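ARCHIVE CARD
CATEGORY: sequence design from structure
SOURCE FIELD: tokenized fold
FIELD CONTENT:
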């Protein structure tokens, strides 16, 4: 297994990985709000890759036998002129996607991808890394906690 920077020839693999993640999220969503839109597979990877392009980001792949089995995407967004009003604004990187195929999970691939992205953020003078985790995704929450991450914000939801 090697970690490489994104190449276009792996676009279909990324689409498959993102769809696999979204299907999993739908399966654990206790609020039944998430869906896999019919165009999700076709569009989501392109949306994510565009965000990377526009925000000093990177996409790394875990590749074996010329197949991407894991993907991590991250960005380094700029603050806007109002962020400084209520926040110290240390430079931060944001992990926007992390997916490892269920076929190869628990083999250290996620850790390798995280290490690569964290290294990219460090090389770009980021002081913090942020990642949003779906509240019902206990596997992901445990993974990030083992990597030293902790909650800073919560989003509460109430059905009316």
């Amino acid at each position: 297994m090697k970690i490489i920077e994104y190449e276009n020839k792996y676009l279909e693999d990324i689409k498959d990985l993102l769809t696999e993640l979204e299907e999993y999220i739908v399966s654990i969503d206790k609020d039944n709000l998430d869906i896999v839109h019919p165009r999700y597979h076709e569009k989501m990877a392109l949306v994510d890759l565009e965000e990377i392009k526009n925000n000093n980001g990177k996409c790394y792949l875990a590749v074996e036998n010329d197949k991407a089995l894991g993907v991590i995407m991250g960005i380094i967004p700029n603050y806007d002129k109002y962020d400084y009003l209520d926040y110290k604004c240390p430079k931060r990187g944001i992990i926007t996607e992390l997916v490892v195929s269920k076929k190869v999970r628990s083999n250290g691939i996620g850790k390798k991808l995280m290490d690569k992205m964290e290294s990219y953020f460090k090389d770009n003078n980021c002081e913090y890394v942020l990642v949003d985790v779906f509240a019902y995704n206990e596997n992901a929450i445990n993974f990030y906690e083992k990597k030293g991450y902790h909650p800073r914000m919560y989003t509460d939801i109430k059905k009316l």
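CARD ANNOTATION: The chain has one domain: 2-146. The two ends are 48 Å apart (CA to CA).
SHELF: design records, drawer C
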